[in-house]
Amino acid sequence: MRTLTDEQIKKTAQSLIDAKPEDPEIYGRGTNFTAWLTEVELFIDSLDNATLSRALRSSLDEAGLQKRLIQESQERSGLLRWAETYGWQTEGAVSTFTATIRAIDNALLTELSVRIAAEIYNDVLAESDRLIAEKRLPCAAILARIGLENGLHRLAARHNVQLAPKEKASTINLKLRQANVPGYTLSTQQSVDGLLAIGNAFAHSTAEVAKYTEADVTKMIADIRHFLRQHGV
Fold first, then answer.
1. Distance (Å, rounded) from C-alpha 155 to C-alpha 231?
2. For position 190, what pLDDT does the model report?
3. Which of 38, 39, 220, 223 has the smallest CB count inside 10 Å?
């Protein structure tokens, strides 16, 4: 499980790209190249991401590179140096780092704190499901709303949306839309407002409670779970 923040990961990935050994060092498989390759593997391992790990392992696989070497040697009617594969390993590692940076920029990787929070609030929604089964609709709706509000806070933090202390969930929802968060459309904002309204009705025991059925609260929980998964929070 990784402990680096998104910005730290991007900074480390870029520094490894910048420190890429020059060709003479690569082809001689010198000390700098070996040390750099070791840093590369340690860094990718620290991210605890199976996709990136597979991409790097594939790039460094000497057996696979040897097959490529033989094939390209035949196609060029000549022999390439085995050292050529070291250059390919370097190119593959740099490509993996570039993919890492892009994945973070596109919110495809999430920070450790977000991942832990997501697991916690998945449990909250599971508890809401249990309360539904026990016919305790008010508790289920209020608990689900808490899970939704926390998800909104995490999404705002990821996209550097500035919030006031104790910002209302409805205001966070509005700010996320105004900040043009990817995938946060007008219909998304309206849907979230509707989900918050159900939780608020039960939390404040308003007259609106009478119109919400067990099916409505069940759907609310399912919609919140879908929203959190869709936005990776």
1. 8
2. 97
3. 38
